[in-house]
């Protein structure tokens, strides 16, 4: 067979347990989305056919992970599984100290409370909803220092997760290093569309921060996916292993917050990892207040074992290539139908550009929210709004933030869906695209004070 006809990847696993999913009728979906206030977060998962809400906690664990679950040591203190987790973090990421938490935002909470004083500023390569909220709750304010290209869905920049060093320098000049407890660097930047940063850029950030004695904290949630893109795109890295690249990334930083529900292939879990002993001590004192003893955080022993094994699986080249490859497959398919998406195609999902999809709608009638509801109506595929609703209101002005990126995320769980599922998704998006001029906006009729996207309710205009 000629190379041209060969597929670039296939799943490096076979399936030994299946979970039936059910198809619904259009009438059932109309009732379901109305009842959910046109918010896909409020749908019952039983009413969903293909669930692309998130890749968080939705992955299929391996037989090894399930076997590990049976070896859970559920002792209150000193569980053997904690030591396995600690050893995996030390070996793979290289951070010295590990504080287990029930998931990523709990690590963000603890880090924010122990490092941020009122009036501090937190530069970062684009906001993430929970990260920014915990910074704000601790009295800090987030400042975006990502490159401009990240805010442009059409820019083909290969490393849209990069930091703009001039923006970072300007924040330091304006506020002074004393007001910056750390710079937050995410790998495979979620809100930009799963876009990687380069090691060259990260090293430059490290150097700049060293000059001012500022910490660099890594949001490592999708670091293996970022490492795959570095291997694929960054000069000098093609021959390095994913493990080597992951380690090189972590080596540039002083610690990480981690939602193990993504890269690490578990349904629940996370941790805060640090190199500084005094900071670790403070974090350990906090974890017992909010999560649980410092040798389990919010996790059962069996959960920690699954994370430890999942961390090792996350850096397997064949795994990560197939994972990113499946996202690429869906993205290309959607592009073939002419649908506007964020480019380059990201690591964990395909992000539809709702502004370009629905140019007739103003951002304050929530085009991405409306589009996600419309895709559900068409096929029972559940997507997530990542636009004006997710961005929330500016605490100063009280007005909608109206972010540049108004996106619908089709997020792919790991090792869960097949290529045929991807075809169904792409065809549904294409169908909705054909009907796009008939799509109307939404009015928000219930708005929670925090993280409004989770529970907000809407009505069609
Ligand atoms: C995602 C999630 C889960 C989520 C969170 C908030 C709103 C909607 C969905 C979670 C992340 C993440 C990054 C980069 C920290 C967290 C929090 N992502 N950093 O994308 O992507 O972790 O959910 O374990 O608390 O669907 P947590």
Explained architecture:
- This protein is α/β, with parallel strands linked by helices and 461 residues long.
- Helices cover 39% and strands 13% of the residues.
- The protein is built from 16 helices and 14 strands.
- The chain has helices spanning 26-35, 63-69, 80-92, 104-115, 129-137, 165-175, 199-212, 223-233, 242-251, 277-290, 301-314, 317-336, 354-357, 367-379, 388-391, 419-434, and strands at 50-51, 97-101, 121-124, 141-144, 182-186, 215-219, 255-259, 270-274, 349-353, 381-382, 384-386, 407-411, 442-446, 457-460.
- α1 (26-35) packs antiparallel against α14 (367-379), α8 crosses α9 (242-251) and α14 crosses α16.
- It binds ligand P71.
- Residues 54, 56, 103-105, 128-131, 186, 190, 219, 221, 259, 261, 270 line the site of ligand P71.
Concise overview:
This protein has 16 helices and 14 strands. It is an alpha/beta fold and 461 residues long.
